[in-house]
Every structure is written in C-alpha cells, then in structure tokens.
Amino acid sequence: MSYEETAGNFRIVNDALGMGTALMRHCQPEQPTFQAAALAVLQLSKGEIDPEEARDAFIEALEAVGVFVRGVA
Are residues 61 and 23 in contact, defined by beta-carbon separation less than 8 angstroms? Predict the structure, then answer.
C-alpha cells in the first residue's frame, strides 16, 4: 500500500517501521486514531496482531487527518 506523503508524491509502506514513521509524520499523538494505530504497529512488530488489523488501524489514522491512502481494498 502507499500513501501520499506530499502533494503528488507517494511512499510505499510494507512494514511496521514504515507505518510508524508515517504515523509520526502525519498524525498528532493525542488523536485516538493515532493511539490505536500506534498500538497496532507495536503489536505487529512483536507478532501479536494480524497484519490486516494493523493495516486497517494505520489507514484509519492517516485518513482521519486527510492523508490519501492508495491500495485500500
């Protein structure tokens, strides 16, 4: 999947590190969607959560702040 990092420029994300970096760049820590996604990414990095669950939380957090995510089914 990829997200629009800046106008017209997309970044591919395929692991927990990339997801965490995107969350930190685009979301505010006090946002509930950020908190849920950050927890999901941590759980993903420890193998404690299904990757699809982490992906869904990540997409929800980015979309909540107006970031366009490509590759959403």
Answer: yes
Q: Residues 28-56: pLDDT tens digits?
A: 999 999 999 999 999 999 999 999 999 99
**E-strand spans in 27-68?**
none
Query: Tokens standing for 27?
Result: 């979301």
Find all residues with CB under 8 Å of 28, minimum gap 6, and list them: 34, 65
DSSP type of residue 22: H
Nearest to 32 by CA among 6, 57, 1: 57
CB atoms within 10 A of CB 53: 12
